[in-house]
Specification:
Length: about 425
């Protein structure tokens, strides 16, 4: 190498003199997996062809950079290649931006598909509790609007949650006739995205029922919500109390409805907390407890504690018979997990879990050996996880992926594994498991 410009030396993070002389000095800085291709493009320039290529280098300070190199031949008066010139451009930031955009696209696709699966489950559950078509339309529309408000809040800023007070103001304020009908008391608490999603839906159900049957249905009624931090086993927790007063007499419910399931099952399953609703003569009462991250007002949703999922089956008449099979279900969304488990039970299988976290699934595998498994890839956020897939592969237990991610997110070692893309018909899940 005869000449190195100051700009090129700066890109490579080295003194100009260190690159002069033997071209092997330049080649040594290129990562081994890119070196052969870079040499091939240099040979093309030596043969008279211009070449543009990209490769990675490792600088002396240990940092990595992406280089876009434009090589071109310099001819003598006889038309023979005398030298090769090159222009180096640091394109690291561009590469990182493109890679980041790809990650965001994968997460967006995953999020949208999960939302569609959630909408499907919400529509089915709304139909179960409706007394007529008009009632179904009203309740489903309200729940979808609440879900839309959640997405609006969560997409204002990446990985941001929301204020507990703001969520309560939004949900109760939408239903109340005036601000005098509700009172909110408690410290400022910022919730994680998952907690915002679950609690917004819970407060929507409580507010809607208060408007239909409880304190918000009359001008003299009032809803009081208080919340506070407390310590449990030296860990910070959050307690929320919803109290209605002054409402019309209300008989206790005869069945477990959408809101009760959400509070008493979805909150424990997804947020690892507790929820309990009761109906008093003048209105509803609800008590919710959730663990908070230490020294932060962000809800922790990945504590490895046992969870319980309400049972039930779905009629799978005509679907493959899974009798005698024991199937592990790993899914962090309560509704999707509940529906999947019910479908598998309806086909005759015994369901282990469902497990909302990797830790839960590991605990199950330490005590049981399933015949097969259905695995979600993204548990409690943080991108796709393959720890359980590796364990199952090592133990020879067949499984399917049940995910909103595209195939290119899955490593090559799992390329042969069936991928079920959300949302999907429950019968298709049963069909896929039957083929394992």
């Amino acid at each position: 190498m005869e000449y190195v410009s100051p700009a090129t030396a700066a890109i490579y993070g080295i003194e100009r003199e260190a690159l002069l002389g033997d071209i092997k000095r330049w080649a040594a800085m290129i990562l081994p997996e890119d070196r052969e291709a870079a040499g091939h493009h240099m040979e093309r320039a030596c043969q008279g062809d211009s070449a543009i290529h990209e490769f990675r280098i490792r600088r002396n300070d240990g940092s990595f950079r992406w280089i876009k190199d434009t090589d071109f031949p310099l001819f003598d008066e006889k038309g023979k290649v005398q030298r090769v010139g090159g222009i180096a451009e640091d394109v690291t930031e561009t590469k990182m931006a493109v890679e980041h955009q790809g990650v965001l696209l994968h997460e967006l696709q995953h999020r949208v598909r999960n939302i569609m699966a959630m909408i499907r489950s919400t529509a089915v559950r709304s139909a179960d509790g409706a007394t007529n078509v008009e009632d179904y339309k009203t309740s489903l529309a309200g729940r979808l609007l609440a879900l839309a408000r959640v997405q609006t809040l969560l997409t204002r800023q990446a990985n941001a949650g929301g204020s507990l007070r703001d969520i309560l103001e939004s949900e109760i304020g939408t239903q109340a006739h005036s601000e005098n009908q509700y009172e909110l008391t408690g410290p400022e608490i910022m919730l994680s995205p998952k907690a915002v999603e679950v609690l917004t839906l819970a407060f929507h159900e409580l507010s809607t029922n208060a408007l239909k049957y409880g304190a918000l249905s009359v001008s003299s009624g009032k809803v009081t919500v208080t919340w506070s931090r407390f310590q449990r086993r030296e860990k910070p927790w959050l307690a929320i109390d919803w109290i209605e007063e002054g409402g019309p007499p209300r008989p206790p419910p005869t069945r477990r409805g959408f809101g009760s399931e959400l509070i008493e099952a979805k909150i424990p399953y997804e947020l690892r907390g507790t929820g309990k609703t009761t109906i008093e003569p003048d209105g509803a009462r609800c008590h919710i407890e959730l663990r908070l991250r230490e020294a932060e007002s962000i809800l922790e949703t990945d504590a490895p504690v046992p969870t319980r999922l309400y049972g039930g089956t779905i009629d799978m008449t005509g679907a493959p018979d899974l009798s005698g099979k024991t199937i592990l279900v790993m899914e962090d969304d309560y509704y999707v997990a509940s529906d999947t488990a019910a479908a598998l039970r309806g086909a005759g299988a015994v369901v282990l879990g469902p497990s909302p976290t990797v830790e839960d699934a590991i605990h199950v595998l330490e005590n049981d050996t399933p015949s097969s498994a259905v695995l979600d890839l993204n548990l409690s956020g943080g991108g796709p996880k393959f720890a359980i897939a590796h364990r199952l592969l090592e133990r020879g237990i067949p499984f399917v992926f049940f995910t909103g991610y595209d195939p290119d997110v899955i490593p090559d070692e799992f390329a042969h594994i069936t991928r079920l893309q959300k949302p999907i018909a429950l019968r298709d899940v049963v069909e896929a498991v039957s083929r394992l």
